Amino acid sequence: MSLTPPDVTLTSTDALLNSGTAGVYARTVHRVVDDVAARLAAVDQPWSGASRTELAELVDGVDLDSSGVGTEDALRETAALYATHAVWFHDPAYAAHLNCPVAVPAVGAEAMLAAINTSVDTYDQSTVATLMERRLVAWANRRIGFAGGDGVFTSGGTQSNLHALLAARERALTGPDGNRLTGIARHGLQGRLRVLATAAGHFSVAKSAMILGLADDAVVTVATDASGRMDPDALAGALATTERVGDVVMAVVATAGTTDRGTIDPLGPVADLCDATDTWLHVDAAYGGGLLVSRTRRHLLDGIERARSVTVDFHKTFFQPVSASAVLVREPEDLARTAWHADYLNPVEDSAEVNQVDRSLQTTRRFDALKLWTTLRAIGPDGIGAMVDAVCDLAAAVHADLARDPELHVVSGTDLSTVIFRYQPDGVTDEQADALVARVRRVLFDSGRASVAKTVIDGRPCLKLTLLNPAVTLADVRRVLSLVRDAAHGLLAGQALADEHEPPCRDVHPHLARHAGDAVGPKEAR
Q1: I need a surface site. Which of 5, 65, 257, 381 has the fewest CB within 10 A?
Q2: 523 falls in which pLDDT band (50, 70, 90)?
Q3: Which of 305, 294, 198, 213 has its CA nearest to residue 252?
């Protein structure tokens, strides 16, 4: 019986990276790097401005089921599609979300880890990589003030917050004997667990509560002051009320760098209340974590060392490529409660081996810590801290600039690098200014010339700049704000024309009413 030879396109190993294809790998990566470098140098706006319809047609036009075209042609085609229409966070006119330009040494490390493809779930898959990540976790803990803490790298702030709240839940569901509650006792108590956080906190807090099986009303909103920071008096009241009604506070979540305002909750007073009530304090410092290496603003995080857990996103204010985040805990046993063991991976009898899957929610996991390691060795913590200070200083300069602006008005202050404002010169009503926010943002985005964000503060829509590029100057930001003004002027002018009772065309168009009160239809029909 003869067998039909398999299709060589399905079995060929020529495309795999190994000793035999090392030369192909070098040539391929060099071509990609040269192409990306040329594009980086030529970028003159955040993105191409192509419409969603145009992009969908380009994407749908690629036949993913056809025979392969070869590595070189595939990468050339991919660059034409992806790189041409990507959003470039390094462009000075990009000021929308918490995206940063990335450190060059980290990009070099990214190439290294992608090719070697280490998974840091168990020591026997990673060896020195595990030890390097453990060293970085210890370094970050020392920066926070956790003398003997623990932690693990994650995919981002959402996963870090989820993991911290999972650890808090497991602590809350531990009996007096130190054992995990089960059965009816566990189910009954879990339904009474509550998480106290402000409305300015990250949405992942509520999402985590849902994933963790808490009650629908488990997240209790704590009031804020006029600046959007957690009000300690309101927290004290919420703690007392929760206990009075028979519920249990699983955790208080304070934010060190809210997504919208970039403000930091009063960590010291919040920690005082959590200490007094033996309550788990989690500090979400995904945005503000970069202050850990700031020479001028580290004091804004005073009190963070009293938290039970902390989230830090290195792919925000440490200028690392996505993804690079960590959840850090003051007490190592808090992560140990969430460990799970499998005979084929991390059996209990091998607990002396450094298997980070014991700490992580993930199994297979990239060696993202290598990027931060390399950046620290290249420019040092002070180098990163100087970049954090630069974007915060820039935001302060923009705030001062807008204080004298007759058309653009600052809505809220910041502790970090956020600018929240509205276009509202004299004569423009609140309602008109409200309507302009989304339209201005859309006009700028659709043109590809600038990218700004929008949000809602105290019930009013606002425009927002998130400044995370240390190379951007005040002049660069002024150019973006000039585009905002131009767009707003144009939209208002267009609206004024639309509101005219007798535009010239209405004298010749038979289907338009002549006056506001006229019926629509030809004059002869009236």
Answers
A1: 65
A2: very low
A3: 198
